[in-house]
Automatic annotation (TrEMBL):
Keyword ATP-binding: yes
Assigned keywords, A-Z: ATP-binding, Nucleotide-binding
Domain ABC transporter: 25-256
Keyword ATP-binding among UniProt keywords: yes
Comp. bias intervals (Basic and acidic residues): 242-254
GO MF assignments: ATP binding
PANTHER family the UniProt entry points to: LINEARMYCIN RESISTANCE ATP-BINDING PROTEIN LNRL
Region (Disordered) location: 1-20, 239-298
Name assigned to this protein: ATP-binding cassette domain-containing protein
Pfam families reported in the protein's UniProt record: ABC_tran (PF00005)
Residues spanning the signal sequence: none
Gene3D superfamilies xrefs: P-loop containing nucleotide triphosphate hydrolases
Length: 298
């Protein structure tokens, strides 16, 4: 099993100096293409320290690609990415040490117990040997898996697997937690539970959270700010309330009655993504995401 962020060998000595920027994540004109397909197209993004920032967008908007550049799993061919002031192109190891990453794909090994899965990540992320057992126990406790810690992961429900993956990402005490669709395919109770655990850790540690989600209700409820991404760029940015009010205001200037209810975040999303939302939802990529989750549950 390969952990989501491998221990890397690169020229970074780990002594890179932060440039003094206060942003947890800063992308400047980030661009990434797969052959002819432009996935990220000049992305400018700044996530403040301690924020819960939601990156929203239809399938294929470029969210995962942007996240993989931020985590250093993909190179940055154009533009710049900094994590707490460290340049991801030059200081790959320093950046990786500050990150916890829960990818869309399954990152837990079904043939290991919960504790063994988390311990594996503790080793890969260089948690000092003497502290490992305590840190693993702490991470499992933080996601409420202490009682199930010594069961094989293939006996876990989908929600428990997601919480286990959260524990794997938390065991290195990251300053920045990046989650790609953390609740996709989970039932409403399991979704709420995942968010409650993320929030509890954030409140206790001040960790910054960058999350992608298709669930607008989650973004509205849990994110301090959201960026709506479409065709590789951020098309709208603000608090969920600002975005909802902005669309409401525009609709009123276009003649909508003042008595109309305030638009939802989903209305804002549809306003920006337009037909892209209709064109791409339910496609192969969507099915693949759901299957990935089904495999996890199964
Ligand atoms: N490995 C790859 N090879 C070729 N094209 C890719 C690859 N990964 C992504 N793409 C393309 O890049 C674009 C952006 O994909 P990306 O996965 O970043 O979007 P996304 O917003 O994360 O979508 P989703 O919400 O479905 O996860 C899409 O057009 C996609 O088809």
């Amino acid at each position: 099993m390969t952990p989501s962020i491998d221990a890397a060998t690169d020229s970074d000595t780990g002594t890179g100096t932060a440039t003094g920027r206060s942003a947890a994540v800063s992308c400047t004109r980030l661009a990434y293409s797969f052959g002819e397909t432009t996935a990220v197209d000049g992305l400018d993004l700044s996530v403040g320290e301690g924020e819960v920032f939601g990156l929203l967008g239809p399938n294929g908007a470029g969210k995962t690609t942007a996240i993989r550049c931020i985590t250093t799993l993909l190179p940055v061919p154009a533009g710049m990415v900094h994590v707490f002031g460290h340049d991801t192109a030059k200081e790959q190891m320093s950046v990786r040490r500050m990150l916890g990453y829960v990818p869309q794909q399954l990152s837990a090994d079904s043939g290991l117990t919960g504790r063994e899965n988390v311990a594996l990540f503790a080793r890969v992320f260089d948690v000092p040997r003497k502290e490992r057992a305590a840190r693993v126990a702490q991470a499992l406790r933080a996601v409420d898996l202490t009682d199930a810690a010594d069961r094989l992961a293939n006996t876990y429900s989908g929600g428990m697997v997601r919480r286990l993956e959260l524990a794997q990402a938390l065991v290195s005490a990251p300053r920045l937690l990046i989650l790609d669709e953390p609740t996709i395919g989970l039932d409403p109770i399991a979704r709420t539970s995942v968010w409650e655990h993320i929030n509890a850790v954030r409140e206790a540690t001040g960790m910054t959270v960058l999350v992608t989600t298709h669930y607008m209700d989650e973004a509205d409820q849990y994110c301090d700010r959201v960026g709506l991404m479409h065709r590789g760029r951020i098309r709208a940015l603000g608090t969920p309330e600002q975005l909802r009010e902005g669309l409401g205001e525009r609709r009123r200037t276009e003649g909508a009655p003042a008595t109309d209810p305030l638009p939802t975040l989903e209305d804002v999303f549809r306003d920006i993504a337009g037909s892209g939302l209709e064109d791409q939802s339910g496609g192969f990529r969507d099915v693949r995401s759901t299957r990935r989750t089904a495999n996890r549950v199964g």
